[in-house]
Design a protein that fits this description.
The chain is low in regular secondary structure. It is built from 3 helices and 6 strands; from the N terminus they run ββββαααββ. The radius of gyration is 28 Å and the shape is elongated. Keywords: Ligase, Metal-binding, Zinc, Zinc-finger.
Amino acid sequence: CQSSCQRTFHLPCAPDGECVTQYFGAYRSFCWEHRPKQALQPHPSQDNTCSICLDTVDDTISYTTMGCPACHDARFHRHCIQRLALHSGIAFRCPCCLNQELFMMEMLTMGIRLPKRPPSWESDQEARPSDQRHGRCDAATCLCPGGREHAEAEGPWQLWLCSSCAAKGIHRHCPSLGNSKYTWECNTC
């Protein structure tokens, strides 16, 4: 994006050449010489540890070592903060001081790609309860000709859920309980 610069590079090659691509606004790209640089001054008490992976980082701010513009204490590897940004999505903030606005704008300017979606831990199916009803027969031997996933609203292939946990189900006909029983409990419960 520097008008006087004649350098060109492939977008996938940019990180290897320490070039910066900004993934917002005009989606500008900068070569290693004209890229934006952080204007952070190191604090004498800085312990030079990445705030994310806890490995050692360089003493000075560079392409590979970045810092928080809000608290000036956080230091991290570029690849660590990029990984955090990809998982955090719209909840991206400094891992030390939790500043969001100043920190996010600085990271976007420095070429950190930030997806516009909820954090990965909020969309993880195992991390939150499912709003979908259990839909398969868990009997040791399923007798249904349509298979374990087949279920009907009434009749012998009606799927009964465990009356205690509702995490397991069984076709009404599979355990041969007949029409007389209207509840069922799984072996776990």
